[in-house]
Design a protein that fits this description.
three-stranded parallel beta sheet
């Protein structure tokens, strides 16, 4: 059995108990994508094989050429957030921290793929949105748009719909931010490592296994936009430190996340059966 994501408790915890029982009773081998996933499920049966990343896709690209295609200037500092609009990925925390960053570093550009879309205009969707707004309920998209307008961040933020070439955004960026508020593994961390970029991330289960504080990035208290902003600014202001962290991240990615090594480790489990 492969456990590909953290199993949430649900309302009464039955789902987690059922999966744990199934593993204990029926699985010959179980593979988890991080230690937190294994511990959260409460089973001692299984092993961790981290998700892979294709390192070749990240090292063979031209950083400046990609920046040009995205409409970014050669000397601009770029901060990347790739969590989309899922609340547990911390988009609201991230947007709240941007005011402090742009006050000190007004030339920075923020890339936010997966956060721009056209909401449905059908009658029922429009009615639901209208009624929700009447009682002060707003979608994540609406809250982010309000925050951007309230602090005049429009010129600093580039939002995108779904994209297929996410590796180009990592290559073009200088810093990757992973402000998740609920423990789960973050693929963005290993992609940042493959692109040799420092990571500013929440100190939560899953992420804290692969972000080493002050080695390949910074770990921050989850849900704290002020601390998030402080550490992003540290990286923006210190090129030497950021490059060292990125290099450490790449070494870590080569040792832990290489796709070829991942395939061999999974095959070893299958061969053992």
């Amino acid at each position: 059995i492969h456990i590909r994501e953290t199993v949430v408790d649900g309302y009464l915890g039955f789902r987690k108990k059922l999966i744990r029982r199934g593993i204990e009773k029926y699985a010959d081998r179980t593979i988890f994508i991080c230690e937190h996933n294994k511990n959260a499920l409460g089973t001692q049966k299984g092993e961790v094989i981290y998700n892979p990343v294709s390192l070749e896709k990240y090292k063979s690209q031209d950083h400046l050429a990609i920046k040009g295609r995205l409409g970014l200037k050669e000397n601009q500092k770029i901060v990347l957030y790739v969590g989309g609009l899922r609340v547990i990925n911390g988009p609201l925390i991230f947007v709240k921290c941007l005011k402090d960053i742009i006050e000190e570093y007004p030339q920075v550009k923020i890339l936010m793929p997966y956060t721009s879309y056209t909401p449905s205009t059908t009658f029922f969707s429009s009615l639901k949105r209208f009624l929700g707004n009447c009682v002060n309920y707003f979608s994540t998209r609406q809250i982010i748009e309000k925050e951007i307008k309230a602090h005049s961040l429009e010129n600093n933020i580039l939002q995108f719909d779904y994209i297929n070439d996410i590796e180009n955004f990592f290559i073009a960026s200088d810093i990757v931010v992973v402000p998740f508020i609920s423990p789960h593994f973050a693929r963005a961390v290993i992609e940042a490592g493959a692109a040799a970029k420092p990571v500013i991330a929440s100190n939560i289960g899953g992420i804290s296994e692969v972000v080493r504080h002050e080695v390949n990035g910074f770990l921050c208290a989850p849900g704290d936009p002020k601390e998030l902003a402080r550490n992003i600014l540290r990286c923006l202001k210190d090129d030497s430190m950021s490059k060292d962290m990125g290099a450490n991240g790449l070494s870590f990615a080569k040792a832990q996340f290489d796709a070829k090594m991942h395939a061999k480790n999974v095959l070893k489990v299958y061969d053992s059966l």
